[in-house]
């Protein structure tokens, strides 16, 4: 992680300069996982990435969270960011690299190692920068049927006290033309969060549609970037968390690992 932090700090967005630091990357076996989660808005990247981070003991670094906390800080970037995010557009690579660099440096100071990145990289340029500074072991591309994405974004609720993510959408898609049906039960908060639920300002129908459009234009090419490097694991979510979590662990060869962890706990 030290190498990526150093690099991002010194050369926020120049991939060529970034490559010079590659030799500082720690040897593969001596470090924790360095994974990336890709997927459309609403697919559940945050939910599954944060569960895996708890299991593996690595930080969950979501660039969307970094953007939202910068926004909430009312710092010099706040009004610019608020305009971009509320239109469903992407923040510039330069701003994202600076926010990420700061997050990595803070984590490094606390002794963090490894990571799961969620929502980054989102453009080919970001993927190239990342490739120039560190080795990504695996990229998980989460997918669900397109019809569910909008409903999942509109149903998303966040507890403004504990930060927990919930979803009030109840999704039921019929199977057709060989495609299986899918049921996703709402993910309801505990009673003490109920009165504190808020909706993200960019989770409106108009903005979600724009985010989905931008995903297919700017972020889908990132899937191909990793596919061509043999790093992409495609994972079709079969339903909600109860069905999907065990299958995801199997796909990642972590099923036994989770059992051992829960026995040890
Ligand atoms: N890697 C990134 N590059 C550019 N903008 C980003 C990036 N990550 C997050 N953002 C900004 O933050 C917003 C929210 O991101 P995120 O929470 O990942 O939402 P979602 O995946 O649900 O669209 C994005 O719409 C975008 O404006």
Automatic annotation (TrEMBL):
<dbReference type="InterPro" id="IPR027417">
    <property type="entry name" value="P-loop_NTPase"/>
</dbReference>
<keyword id="KW-0418">Kinase</keyword>
<dbReference type="GO" id="GO:0005524">
    <property type="term" value="F:ATP binding"/>
</dbReference>
<dbReference type="InterPro" id="IPR033690">
    <property type="entry name" value="Adenylat_kinase_CS"/>
</dbReference>
<dbReference type="InterPro" id="IPR000850">
    <property type="entry name" value="Adenylat/UMP-CMP_kin"/>
</dbReference>
<dbReference type="GO" id="GO:0004017">
    <property type="term" value="F:AMP kinase activity"/>
</dbReference>
<protein>
    <recommendedName>
        <fullName>adenylate kinase</fullName>
        <ecNumber>2.7.4.3</ecNumber>
    </recommendedName>
</protein>
<comment type="similarity">
    <text>Belongs to the adenylate kinase family.</text>
</comment>
<dbReference type="Pfam" id="PF00406">
    <property type="entry name" value="ADK"/>
</dbReference>
<keyword id="KW-0547">Nucleotide-binding</keyword>
<keyword id="KW-0808">Transferase</keyword>
<dbReference type="InterPro" id="IPR006259">
    <property type="entry name" value="Adenyl_kin_sub"/>
</dbReference>
<comment type="subunit">
    <text>Monomer.</text>
</comment>
């Amino acid at each position: 992680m030290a190498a990526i932090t150093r690099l991002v700090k010194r050369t926020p967005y120049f991939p060529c300069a970034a490559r010079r630091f590659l030799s500082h990357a720690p040897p593969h076996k001596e470090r924790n996982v360095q994974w990336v989660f890709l997927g459309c808005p609403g697919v559940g990247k945050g939910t599954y990435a944060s569960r895996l981070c708890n299991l593996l003991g690595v930080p969950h670094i979501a660039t969307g969270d970094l953007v939202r906390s910068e926004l909430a800080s009312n710092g010099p970037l706040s009004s610019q960011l608020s305009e971009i995010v509320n239109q469903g557009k992407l923040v510039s690579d330069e701003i994202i690299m600076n926010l990420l660099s700061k997050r990595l440096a803070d984590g490094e100071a606390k002794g963090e190692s490894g990571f799961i990145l969620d929502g980054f990289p989102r453009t080919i340029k970001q993927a190239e920068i990342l490739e120039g500074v560190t080795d990504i072991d695996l990229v998980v591309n989460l997918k669900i049927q397109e019809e569910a994405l909008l409903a999942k974004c509109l149903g998303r609720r966040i507890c403004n006290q504990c930060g927990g993510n919930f979803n009030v959408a109840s999704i039921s898609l019929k199977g057709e033309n060989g495609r299986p049906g899918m049921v996703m039960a709402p993910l309801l908060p505990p009673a003490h969060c109920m009165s504190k639920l808020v909706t993200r300002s960019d989770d409106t129908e108009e903005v979600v549609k724009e985010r989905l459009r931008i995903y297919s234009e700017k972020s889908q090419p990132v899937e191909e970037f990793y596919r061509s490097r043999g790093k992409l694991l495609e994972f079709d979510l079969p339903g909600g968390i109860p069905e999907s979590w065990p299958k995801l662990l199997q796909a990642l060869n972590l099923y036994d690992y989770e059992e051992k962890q829960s026995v040890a706990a």
